[in-house]
Amino acid sequence: MSSTPETTPSLDFIRQIIVEDNKTGKHGGKVVTRFPPEPNGYLHIGHAKSICLNFGIARQFEGVCHLRFDDTNPTREDVEYVDSIQEDVHWLGFDWADKKFYASDYFEKLYQFAVELIRVGKAYVCDQTADEFKANRGTPTVPGKDSPYRNRSVDENLDLFGRMRKGEFADGSRTLRAKIDMASPNIHMRDPAIYRIRKAEHHRTGNQWCIYPMYDFAHCLSDSIEGITHSICTLEFEVHRPLYDWILDALKTPCHPQQIEFARLNLGYTVMSKRKLLQMVTEGNVSDWNDPRMPTIAGMRRRGYPPEAIRAFCEKVGVAKRENIIDMALLEYCVREELNKSAHRAMAVLHPIKVVLTNYPENQAEEFDAINNPEDPSAGTRKIPFSREIYIDQDDFKEVPPKKYFRLVPGGEVRLRYAYIIKCEKVVKNDQGEVVELHCTIDPGSKAGGPTSGRKIKGTIHWVSAPQAISAEVRLYDRMFTVEQPDADAEGRDFKTFLNPQSLVTLANCKLEPSLANAAPGTRFQFERLGYFNVDPVDSKPGKPVFNRTVTLRDAWAKIEQATHQS
RNA sequence: UGUCCGAUGGUGUAACGGUAGCACACAGCCCUUUGGAGGCUAUUGUCCUGGUUCGAAUCCAGGUCGGACAGCCA
Predict the structure, then answer these.
(1) Other CB atoms within 10 Å distance of the CB of residue A251
(2) Which of the following is catalytic: A38, A87, A156, A308?
(3) Over the Cα atoms of chain A, what is R_g?
(4) What pLDDT was estimated at residue A497?
(5) Which nucleotide is at minimal CA–C1' distance from A453?
(6) Does ipTM top 0.90?
(7) Closest protein residue to B67 using CA and C1' atoms?
C-alpha cells in the first residue's frame, strides 16, 4: 500500500516498530495489543494515554486490543474498580468486543507454568522470611547472596510448591522464586519471587487460591497466552524486560510478545498516583473518585470534558521515552476546541443584579430568537423571554469603569444580546452603599430589525428575564491539585499534596435562561463569555440543575478569577 | 565504584547525515449588535567538549544533568 506523505502523520517510535515488524513479518503481520489495568482504583488521565495508544494502535493497524484486568493481588482489588474501568474505557470511545480477560482466569495455567519452571530446574521454593529475603538481595551496587534453599531438588520443590497451593503454610513463610542470578546487576534478576502465599479472598476466585503469582510472572505469560504481539507499558517496567523475556524463554512459550516502554503522562500541578488519589477519597478531601477536581476519567466526565477532547489531547502529547510534564493549558485547549464545536450557547448570570427597564410596560412580554450554536447551523434557535425586569451580571456594570471598559456604566449604553440597547439612568444602593438595582431605559427601535438596530454600541452583555429565570447552583472549579516539590523527608522521594483551597467555589443563586431548566444531566453549554459548563449528572434534579464549570474561555481567565475571588 | 533509559524554545513533540518544523503557552495587532470565536505578526531551541564528514540535532568518544530499579505491589 502506498501512502501520500502529505496525509501520513509522522509515526511515533512505537508505531515505527510495528511498521517495521509488519515489514519483516515478525508477528505474522498481526497486531494484538492490550490495556492491562490492575482493578485497584479508578482510571485517570494517565491511563487515558495508554488506552488511546493501545486501542489506537490496534485500530490503526487493523488489529485488536484486549482489556485485561491484572488482578493478581487480591488484597487491593475490588469489583467496583472492575466496573468503573470498563465504563471509563467505553466512555472514552473504545471497545474490546469479546476480548475481556482477567489474569485470574489464568491462575491454573500459570500454576502449571510454575510447575514446569520447577521441573526444568529454574525455580525453587524459598523459606526465607521477607526480612531475610531483603537482607540477602543486596543493593543496586552490592550483589545479593544465594538463598540456602536455592539448590533444593526438583522433587522437593514440587512437593513444597504443591503444599503451598494446598494451604499448608502460613502467609509469608515461603515463596516460589525464579532461579536466575543473585549477582545480577539488575535487581529484578536476583531470583525474584514469582509466587507468594496470600490467604485472602479474591474478588473473582474467592478462596479457591491461597498462592498468587507476582506481576513479573503473570504478566508476560498472560500476554503470551493471549497472543499479544506488542506489550506496551510505561518506562518503569524497562528494567523488568529482561525478566519478562527470561520467563518466556525459560518456558519456551510459542508466543513471545515484545515489550515496548513509553514515558507515562504527567500533568503539571496534578497528582496522578492511585495511592494518593485514593487517599484524597478516603480522607474526604474530595467527594469521591468522580469529584470534578479529580484527574480521573470519571472526574473529568463529570466535570464536562468530552471524550473527544481527551482523545485529542492524548494524540497531541505524543509518545516518547522522555520524562515529561504536560502543561494543563494543552488539555484545556483541547476541551475548548471540542466544546466550541459541540456545546450549545446559553445565557446565564452568575452574580445577578436586577435591572428594571422603566420605559418597558409592566405587563408586556416578548420573545427573541437566540442561536444555539454559531458553529453548527443545524443546532437551530430557541426562544428567549424578555420582560421589564431582567438580571445582568454584576461584572457587566461598573460605577467607576476602568479604561477600555465597554459595558454598562452610569449614563452609558450597552446592548442586551439578542434584544435592545439599554441606557443606565439610575443606580439604586442599599444602606451599605452596595449597588442592588439599576434603572434603565430601552431604545424601543433597537431590537433586531428595528430602525435603530444598527446603532454602534461598544458593549454587548447577556441577561436573563427575571420572572422566567431559573435559579441554579453553579460550581466553579479551579485547577485540580497542586503538588509540592519533593522535600527532604525520610523517604526523600515523596510529594506533599494538598487541595487548592480555591479549587471549588459554589454560587448558589445564579440566574439562568429558562431553557436550561430541563437540560439533561451531562449536557454541556457555553455560557457566553463565562466559559463552558455542564449539567452535573450526580447532583442535578429535574427542574433544578447544578452546573459545573468545565473550563473557561481562553481570554476569560483573569476576569473569571477576579469575579470568583470577589464572591 | 552498579544496571538500564533519556536530554531539541516556557511546555510537549517532529526532523532517521542535507533549509531545525508543528502544537500549546506568552506578547502585540486586526475583526466582531461578541462566535471571548477567527485572522495576522513576533520573540524564544538542538546539554557540554572533542572527533568523523563537503555537511551532524542525527554517527563516534568522553563528560554533565535528569529519571527508573533495592515490595512476598502493579
Answers:
(1) 18
(2) A38
(3) 31
(4) 55
(5) B33
(6) yes
(7) A323
